[in-house]
Amino acid sequence: MAEESSVVIDRGGSSWSDLWSKEDYLAIWLGFFLIFTCVIGYFYFGPKEKFTQTINTANKIQAEEEARAPFKTMAWYGAQDEKSRLRGSSGSEIGKFLGTWTKKPGSWNSNPVDSFVRSSAQANALNEQNMPKYMEAKAAEETALKGAEAAEAAAAAAMFQNQQLNDAAQAQIKSWRDAKKKAGDAKRKTENKPFNYIPTLIGLCAFFALIFGIGIKLMGQNAMRFAVGFSFVFFVSVIAYIFGGQTVAKQYGIGAEAWGIIIGMLIANTIRTPKWVLPACQVEFFIKTGLVLLGAEVLFSKIVAIGIPGIFVAWVVTPIVLITTFIFGQKVLKIPSKTLNIVISADMSVCGTSAAIATAAACRAKKEELTLSIGMSLVFTAIMMIVLPMVIKAIGLPEVLGGAWIGGTVDSTGAVAAAGAFLGEKALYVAATIKMIQNVMIGVTAFGVAMYWVLKVDREEGKKVSAMEIWHRFPKFVLGFLAVSILFSYLDAEMDPNMGAALLDQGVVRGGTRLFRDWFFALSFAAIGLSTNFRELAHYFKGGKPVILYVCGQSFNLVLTLVMAYIMFYLVFPDITARI
């Protein structure tokens, strides 16, 4: 039926009861509940007072060192390290609790059981195996430390007036910092501990079944049937995480999202998804709640920090590519479904699956069209995550330019971070920030598509269009996404930067909202796969037009983003680039 194949099935008016009976609003309230819990836990029951003392002491040391020397001394870096070690996720009871009970299967090589169960003997064996590399790295760090101490002492003896000695000290300190980082990375590999995630996974499944089940009940559906089927959807998500944690799969960027769809579709199109599972395939409910939580990671301070160049790359290129790709699909490829055309265009040009969901809701695309778009996005994202950094390295692009190129073209936020890290710290920062800025376009795109569909595509000739029709069409969960973004931007602006990093970023977000968001996205992709029929998708692949649209649109996106990034970062605002 039409209602079952549409992403947004409510075509009628609205009332106050919608606030607690419609999916979009329930996604907002659930997202707000989780955010409120995390904020209260970290801000009022976390180690804020302890962190404040450490930050104040470290700031005092750094101020003294900045007054004493014309460069960052070893003591300055030591104070910085003290601040960097402040993490709400590991320094508070709420962080430890959430970290324990939201665990997902980890990495493994040859035995998938290693991803969720590790014995004491296995942990000790891994530690012993990695110990020689750590000892080697530690020895190199100690040697570099002595060199840095001697060089800084020589510069200090000359009252920091000898530029040659100052330069030598800075070079030695940098070598020590690099060696210290390598030793730290090696040490973490010797700190493996035994674990068993099975009990916590069962508990997490029950918790998710409860909170989403309440929403299902409020929507007038059978909560018990949902809970029973949800156990299977959760199980598929866990299997997807296990497959995504395999070392080769991770290397090629095939994560839990892709595996969720693949495994789900294999089940749906071979042995068939059991009927009792289908009530739990609440794709939109899962991912809309996750998108509300995503707002916590979109901060205005980050947008301002990278300046106008990043805004141009993210906010000027994106709508140009979106509109051009849609017109190309209609006028040149003549794709019969305008909804499929716009969902693919938004997915490819904005920020992948998140934009696809919002756009599909705004234009009321069919479930199969959304599935097709997301599937292509995951495939091309995995390819670009590997190929693009290699191309950037091969042609010798600067880190900032390479990072901007990656951030503006690679769809998934996780893939952007992985690809940017391959190039270096600067590239990672620029890529992740531009992708975050681009995420703001989710709401703008949804609103624009809703307006266009009401005023142009679905408008009946001779009928007046009211503002309420656009409101009915607009996906309300986007408002939750924007509200969370504004809230977290305010909290970030009001806090000391170091405290914000420790409690907000390394606490509420990384130790809370992002943990839930990752799971909700995994659940939605598993649900997509379990409710998708290959035969229904085949109709939309006719003539290969969707693939041609995606390839042509992404090619245009790659060229335009690179040109815009070069102009803005190196011709118009080189001073901003120099400060990155």
In short:
By secondary structure, this protein is mainly alpha-helical.
The total number of structural domains is 3
Give the tally of β-strands. Answer: 2
> Approximately how much beta-strand content do the residues carry?
under 5%
Largest sheet: number of strands, sense, barrel closure: 2 strands, antiparallel
Helix content: over 70%
Separate helix tally: 28
Question: How does the SSE layout of this entry go?
Answer:
Elements: H1 18-21, H2 23-44, H3 48-68, H4 74-84, H5 88-91, H6 93-101, E1 117-118, H7 120-157, H8 163-188, E2 195-196, H9 198-218, H10 223-244, H11 247-251, H12 256-269, H13 283-294, H14 300-315, H15 317-331, H16 338-351, H17 353-363, H18 367-395, H19 399-409, H20 413-423, H21 425-439, H22 441-457, H23 467-473, H24 477-494, H25 497-530, H26 534-538, H27 545-572, H28 574-579
Antiparallel strand pairs: 1-2
Describe the structure in your own words.
With 580 residues, the chain is mostly helical. The chain has three domains: 47-86; 119-194; 283-579, no CATH class. Helix content is 77%, strand content 1%. The protein is built from 28 helices and two strands. It has helices at 18-21, 23-44, 48-68, 74-84, 88-91, 93-101, 120-157, 163-188, 198-218, 223-244, 247-251, 256-269, 283-294, 300-315, 317-331, 338-351, 353-363, 367-395, 399-409, 413-423, 425-439, 441-457, 467-473, 477-494, 497-530, 534-538, 545-572, 574-579; strands at residues 117-118, 195-196. The chain has a two-stranded antiparallel ribbon with strand order 1-2. The protein is globular, with a radius of gyration of 25 Å.
